[in-house]
Amino acid sequence: MTDSMPAYRVLDWEQSPALVETAVPTPGPGQVLVRVAGNGLCHSDLMMSQIPGSLGEAFGWRVPFTLGHEIGGWIAEVGDGIRGYVAGDRVALVSPHSCGECRYCRQGQEIACDVGGAGRGYGRDGGLASFVLVESTRALIPLTTLDPKLAGPLTDAGATSCHAVKRVLPKLTGDDAVAVVIGAGGLGSYAIQLLRAMTGARVIAVDANPARLPLALELGAHDAFDGVDETTSQRLLELTDGHGPDAILDFVGIDTTIDTSIAAIRKLGAYALVGAGGGKLDRPWFGALKEADIICFQGSNIADARDVIALAEQGHVRVDIDEYPLDRVAEAYHALDAGELRGRAVVIPPS
Predict the structure, then answer these.
(1) Beta-carbon contacts of residue 274 (< 8 Å; ≥ 6 apart)
(2) pLDDT, tens digit, 9 for 90 and up, residues 209-241
(3) Domains along the chain?
């Protein structure tokens, strides 16, 4: 193993990331070094280098750090005290950081852990490098049949979608249940598959980009249409005999998608707002939500990552990726930002 490696790092606050050489970490007691097979890119990465230092420090971030939080790879080296893992084992890395000891973690609700503001790829060294250090085996998910480079996107995009589907499952029990996915891109494409795998609901995909609709149908959506505007809620009502969908998963989160969802949701249904588009919920005091549940979150629990990876290994969830070598990582981020990707951009470091 070499002493140094290329890594795509945020070197200082409010500066563009750069591909530089950095030291290969050495695992200490209870730690594991993972050789990265592939790291999926996330829209949140694009914002991290623009965060002011005061805000980053409030999150517990430290510069410099390596970007990348959707990681799959192989065990390269284990520290003292590690049991159950050996060099060469295929693993995925749980994306969100959590302590494992607080009340929320003990309940399996790591999404609420107070230390989750800083982790691999967001304030700590992540996976856009040849190797990444893992703080404990709690963050590892063993892989059996899945290629590690395909596993990375499932740890965040896939797991967050799984968390969303689980939150609305109680609303999707009837034979005539209908679920809507708004935004059929990175996360939405997993939600479509998970809804088909975990429920008997009719799935409707909605996206402003008509080029995404054929893939949504290919992944299992029963219906798909383009455009999110003032007519969308009416179209959803027409497709559900005037009752509205039982659940709407909004992976966009702008004013229009929020307003559309509130206008269309069925009585006693559920609206899950996942997208970070910056929209606001503005509703009348009386009547608009019809006893529907509103769920708002970003992220996932360890169980969500384990569940979506298990479904992928069973063939129920497909992972489409666009591969880029590490020396073209800036190009991959540009394609992500421009909406030019068919699958999830996965960056492959040099072996």
Answers:
(1) 160, 161, 164, 187, 249, 250, 251, 253, 297, 298
(2) 999 999 999 999 999 999 888 899 999 999 999
(3) 4-142+320-348 (3.90.180.10), 160-296 (3.40.50.720)
